[in-house]
Amino acid sequence: MVLSLFAILAIFTTIMALLGREIQKIGRKNEQQLKFQQTLIDTIPSPVFCKDTAFRYTGCNKAFESYIGYSKDELLGKTADELWPKELADHYLQQDRLLFENPGLQCYEGATRFADGTVRDVIFNKATFDDNTGSVQGLVGVMLDITDRKRAEEAVAFQNILLSTQQEASIDGILVVNENAEILSINRRFIEIMGIPAHLLEEKEDEPVLAYVTTLMADPRQFQEKVRYLYEHRLEFSRDELSLCDGKTLDRYTVPLLSPDGRYYGRLWSFRDITERKAAEEETKNTCQELLDIIEFLPDATFVVDKDKRVIAWNRAIEKMTGLNKEAVMGKGNNVYSTPFYGEPRPILIDLVDEALDVISGDYPAITREGRTLFTEAFVPSFRTGDNRFFWATASPLLDTHGKMVGAIESIRDITEYKRAGEEKLRLESQLSHTQIMETLLVRLGHDLKTPLTPLLMLLPLIKNRISDPETKKMVDMCSENINCIKALAEKNKMFVSLVSSIKPYEYQNVTLVSAVEECLAESVDTIATKGLSCQVSIEPSIVVPAVPEQLKELLCNLISNAVRYSPKQGVIYITAYLHAETVSVSVRDEGVGLTMDHLEHIFDEFYKADESRHERGTSGLGLSICKRIVRNHHGRIWAESAGLGQGTTIVFTLHQHSNAMQHSEKETVTNG
User: Fold this and answer.
1) CA dist 589 → 14, 30, 538, 644, 651 (Å)
2) What's the CATH code, domain 296-414?
3) Interval 493-552: pLDDT, tens
4) What is the fold, at CATH topology level, of the domain defined by 2-145?
5) For 274-308, what is each residue's pLDDT tens digit?
6) CB of 121 within 8 A of CB of 109?
7) Among 36, 170, 195, 509, which lies 20 to 30 A Cα-Cα from 203?
8) Whole-number Å distance between alpha carbons of 235 and 232
9) Which CB contacts under 8 angstroms, 24+ apart, belong to 435-439?
């Protein structure tokens, strides 16, 4: 019995030993299983945690530790209100309680504090777990951080709102379609521009809208073809203008919607009403053309440059002045417009409109400024053909409506002849002043000479009668002859001076030309007879000329006396007159000494004598000068002809045969005041 008890005890001891060993094996196996499970949980990238039914943390993975900034040892056995701010802890407790009351799965969006103290948005996915009896033992939770996603979603939402607002605020009509040409969006402006009925927009189909818009086009076929082409060629960009039946003009622009990898998502169409702009552009174009036309026909050489100093206008006058046609300069810069003047490109007045005068005056000493317009005179030596020229130039900036300089204009006038005329005017004024002084002197001299000559002319004959010595009488005769020459010279001077004044209309009389000639021949009859000359007069008795009788007689007498003086003995003098349409030409020809070409140019000059070596008494050198003045006063012409020395001389003058001269003189008198 005792043995049996020991045996039983031994058996029990053995069994217990075996059972202990088995229990140890099971413990080691469970421990390994727990380690495996922990390792498995730690490999999950999302934060994972476990709680018991008392809401205490019973486990977590490495991701959870890193996410919240607590180690597992710091977590185990603690509840949320021991770890988190009250607001978060209360929320966690409330959700956990709901889950335990309704075991199973739970998913909700919440917040948690991150390791750096920031609060992050997360989605909690939790589930309860049971023991073998089916009793709830706790819960397991997994957190998904959606902070970045929410921010991205908010950014996308903001971008969508921004794009939608921009689209609605745009002055352009905008239509967006997807890859299947289905309408994604249409803004209010597109509906306004096209006048699209509301019912066409309800189905979001592109075809009805496209069909309606096509009916608005001035060229619907071309419009359809272009739309079809762009839908078929998805990657193409396009910009063009559309003309509508109602007169509108639209600027159409379209681009494909492409992802960074080139995927096609659809197409955006943009439409802008540019009707008013086109009208303004057309008006501006017409105005500009009118201005260019005005510039083109300005008499002064004119050109225009833009703000980059490129030529945009080059008129006919400057083409003629410079020899450069439009094609050679239009659109070109680099001071191309200065080359014709200076032989090389260089800044000229148009380039200096905004410079200070003290800077410019070195190149243009005579420069002045009125407002922003420059005026100057410039001397250009050896211009084009080598001639020195003077130019007057003016340059002004061209300003837009805001006062900003957009170009400049310069006009150039060749004042060379004006300058020369000015110089000639000064010379003539000086000469006139000198002439007036001389005329005054001559008048005074004639008057002063006449006073002492009168008693001499009266006394010398008396003295001669009282003298018996022949030699003394010869000397008295010589004195009388010279006194007569002085008297004749004084009278000639007086006559010459008197001819300066123009003829008054009332001084004209109708004079029979042949009678005037015969009267002059009668005065020279003694000299003619002495030299044995003959005179042939070929003048129709019917020829009458309007003239001042005294001046006409002086003219004819001077010419006849010259012909008599220079004719050889037994020579012939020819006096003829020819009728023309409005004038009469009269010629006096002798067979005398003749003239050289040089003499022909000067014989009408005052005091000129063809042969200076001959000092003939009774010749003053004023006879032909007086003839020239008389003919000029009668608005005629006078000239000399000669075949050369020893070939005789012909003096020809013209007079009006009717009253035209008198009418002309009246007009001239009125004109001259």
Assistant:
1) 187, 164, 12, 13, 6
2) 3.30.450.20
3) 666 655 666 677 788 899 999 999 999 999 888 889 889 999 999 999 999 999 989 888
4) Beta-Lactamase (3.30.450)
5) 998 888 878 777 777 777 778 888 888 899 998 88
6) yes
7) 170
8) 9
9) 439/497, 439/500
